[in-house]
Give the backbone structure.
Amino acid sequence: MNVPALEVRDLKITYPARRGRGPARAVDGVNLRVEQGEIVALIGESGCGKSTLARALVGLVKPTSGQVLYQGTPLNYSAKALKKYRRHTQLVLQDPGGALNPRQNVFDAVAEGPRLHGLTDRLNETVRTSLTRAGLRPPEEFTARFPHEMSGGQQQRVVIAGALALDPSVIVADEPVASLDASVRGEILKLILSLRDDLGLSALVVSHDLGLAWNIADRVAVMYLGRIVEMGTVEEVLLRPRHPYTRALLSVLPDSAKDWRPTLLAGEPPDPTAIPSGCRFHPRCGNWAALSGPDREAAGCDRRDLPILSGDPSALTLTACHLVPGEHV
Ligand SMILES: Nc1ncnc2c1ncn2[C@@H]1O[C@H](COP(=O)(O)OP(=O)(O)OP(=O)(O)O)[C@@H](O)[C@H]1O
Ligand code: SF4
Ligand SMILES: [Mg+2]
């Protein structure tokens, strides 16, 4: 079997207690693989730990426990090894305006990474090729521009060109289209797809919008309060969602169905400093709330823990729910 481009094994990241609040278990046991040339969408609501996981994948956060592996080798967290690693795995953030220096023109923005890594031979060519691959054509038209002279979509393309200039094999994109107008979101997603198709890049794309996965991903991982609760191929997860949380997320996406009835999630928004016992979703789960008597007792969602999903990409779906038959680990 091929070695995954990126993998996390039993990853946990706990932020220390602060301001009278206990430690935050932002990532609380995650197994996930991104295969070579695969796009995985990581979906979940605000605060569920997506960015923490994304930052761990690129080596910006050191795990509390567990491992991040690149091409089958665990990350080495020495400064020198990390610098080398960051060439291969590039992070693209949500807000290109924030990522770009307003006083740096496009050429210098794209050249920054190669200069940092001492890759200055044929720098002009690298910049031109990267801009072209990012869809800024002809590149000469953009090199002298400053961020304020471009649209949000063009700025995000510059950020992506900067990532491509280091010839990475994996892109980790944290909400790459969240700050963009709806009209250009599709173009940036198409660009990420084309990088996969033309350059064989792998990608993890973070979003709070499950609908986005449909447009871009091969597989989807749905995250809730530090854990992945459902994972599988896009078709399985989006067309046949099994976990009540995935179903709730999907139900709020407007579609053309006449009997569209969104499921509003009950209860408090998730708090990683106070993770509920048993199934961590149980205080908000409609399926659990609907159970009574012996069925409720047998399900025991408020006291029975769920195992951590294995992350096996060959499984059509993996679901962390006591009431869903099939694979749990
Ligand atoms: N440096 C930090 N110190 C303490 N807690 C943190 C820190 N960074 C994040 N957290 C907490 O960890 C949890 C996960 O945060 P994270 O940013 O990974 O979530 P997210 O899923 O990316 O959310 P969003 O969709 O809002 O970007 C949140 O509850 C957040 O408050
Ligand atoms: S285990 Fe129980 S509470 Fe958790 S998602 Fe399944 S039905 Fe809901
Ligand atoms: Mg985030």
The first helix runs from residue 50 to 57. DSSP finds twelve helices and eleven strands in the chain. The CA atoms of residues 99 and 187 lie 19 Å apart. Residues 243-244, 279, 281-282, 285, 287-288, 299, 301, 321-323 surround iron/sulfur cluster (ligand 2) (CB under 6 Å).
